[in-house]
Fold this protein.
Amino acid sequence: MQGSGVKGQGSGKNLKLRTSNSELIFILGGARSGKSSFALRLAESIGSRNIYIATAEALDEEMAERIKRHKENRGKDWQVIEAPINITGKLAGLKRKGDVILIDCLTLWVNNQMEKMADKKILKETGSLLKAVKAINKNIIIVSNEVGLGIVPDNPLARRFRDIAGMVNQKIAEAADEVYLMVSGIPVRVK
């Protein structure tokens, strides 16, 4: 990408990102690495009419509390669209809306699909998501967890999740204009 204003490794507090109107930025990292905070600051540095596509569902008290904290961190200036599975369908209706679309998070989207779809279908949906991202012609930030750095899980379901999330992350990273890996709150530009 020509002229990214995200300089060095720093915390990203003084972001001045200069982008085209159709850039895909992928941010990944481990749990509590600062992915969402960095993504919010990055989006706000690009535009003021921002759209947040949330993939989380409040299926228990703990998740409801997490969602509440995310809402508080975002503030009230964001338009929020809930899309636990159908991100592609939601994107189609946003072509003329907003400056930046932030999708948070891809690993929850994968998890939500795993109950309903085979791995090949999830990868096909990832391809459809990338086509929709390209067609919408907007700056889009996608957040995901890097799940492949830990130990090999001890059960087949967890290994399946790790594997499919890793494959989805690879597809998104390959298509992205910029990729950042969050390490202890520090964005490291990978691509």
DSSP finds six helices and seven strands in the chain.
